[in-house]
């Protein structure tokens, strides 16, 4: 009952957020910003989204170490797509990670290793996001007045991410009560799988490089949203504002960040830069086409290989 109530509250936040946004900014005024120049940029964004899925598959395969080499690359890509399908429909934004890591792990009898690889890659992605954010932040602060709360919040999130990656790699050193390990046998297996990366420094840092490329694509995509509606912004500005948006929408207060994402985007780009809200939303809504592009591929995988 508690989970059901929380799910309904998240749905309520998303509905109210979207409803308020479109009440203040009519959809017709948003739609007018999609012109002939939008299509070439949208095709480019679809292309780099496709490339990012290949990079994610490569990172996952590499983090499975020798076991990953035994599995065809196309299989990793298929499960990446499957994850996006479930992420689009499961509340929280992490449901797809659970489905794809457990499904591939069970198929190849590598569940702890598969889950460990996805967990590590998630944290690495966040660390690369913070790297790009704090590289770009000094220039942004010199030119714009960004609320200190955003900077402090990003700093706190960075510390949590650093702690998380260290905890993952040394989790086997943490002795859990037998009452827990005897009841949940998966936990010691996951700890052992995570500990493997301490002795796999080369692959660990290669995975960091893949994560850097993926975050770079995320920000290039955000930059492309504005170019698609005829607005040119400094790339460093896009990095800072969209990094803040990503972290805020990860908070478990809505369904996959819907409603909250739009509010944060408008707060930053309209409130600080003065860009009309209809243009900001016109660019942001293009992102849902990319989500649909990923989810459709996952739906095809699910339909073809239901087992």
From TrEMBL:
Keyword Nuclease on entry: no
Record's bilayer topology term: Multi-pass membrane protein
Transmembrane segments: 7-26, 38-55, 76-94, 114-141, 148-167, 204-226, 238-260, 280-304
Keyword terms of this UniProt record: Cell membrane, Membrane, Transmembrane, Transmembrane helix
Localization: Cell membrane
Stored InterPro entries: L-PG_synthase/AglD
PANTHER family reported for this sequence: BLL5419 PROTEIN
Name used for this protein in its record: Flippase-like domain-containing protein
Organism name: Hallerella porci
Phylogenetic classification of the source organism: Bacteria, Pseudomonadati, Fibrobacterota, Fibrobacteria, Fibrobacterales
């Amino acid at each position: 009952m508690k989970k059901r109530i929380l799910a309904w509250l998240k749905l309520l936040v998303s509905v109210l957020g979207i409803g308020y946004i479109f009440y203040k900014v009519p959809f017709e005024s948003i739609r007018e910003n999609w012109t002939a120049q939008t299509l070439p940029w949208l095709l480019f964004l679809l292309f780099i989204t496709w490339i990012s899925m290949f990079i994610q598959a490569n990172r996952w395969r590499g983090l499975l170490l020798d076991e990953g080499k035994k599995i065809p690359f196309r299989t990793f890509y298929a499960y990446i797509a499957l994850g996006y399908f479930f992420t689009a429909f499961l509340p929280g934004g992490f449901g797809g990670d659970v489905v794809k890591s457990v499904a591939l792990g069970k198929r190849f009898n590598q569940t702890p290793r598969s889950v460990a690889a996805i967990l590590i890659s998630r944290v690495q992605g966040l660390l690369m996001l913070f790297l790009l954010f704090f590289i770009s932040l000094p220039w942004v602060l010199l030119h714009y007045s960004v609320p200190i709360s955003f900077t402090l919040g990003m700093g706190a999130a960075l510390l949590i991410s650093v702690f998380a990656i260290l905890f993952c790699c040394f989790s086997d050193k943490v002795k859990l009560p037998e009452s827990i390990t005897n009841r949940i046998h998966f936990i010691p297996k996951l700890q052992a799988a995570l500990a493997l990366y301490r002795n796999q420094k080369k692959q660990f840092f290669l995975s960091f490089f893949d994560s850097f490329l993926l975050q770079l694509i995320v920000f290039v995509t955000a930059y492309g949203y504005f170019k698609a509606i005829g607005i040119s912004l400094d790339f460093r500005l896009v990095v800072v504002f969209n990094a803040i948006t990503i972290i805020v929408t990860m908070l478990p207060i809505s369904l996959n960040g819907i409603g909250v994402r739009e509010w944060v985007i408008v707060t930053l780009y309209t409130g600080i830069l003065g860009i009309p809200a209809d243009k900001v939303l016109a660019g942001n809504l293009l992102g849902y086409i990319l989500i649909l592009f990923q989810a459709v591929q996952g739906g095809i995988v699910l339909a073809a290989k239901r087992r």
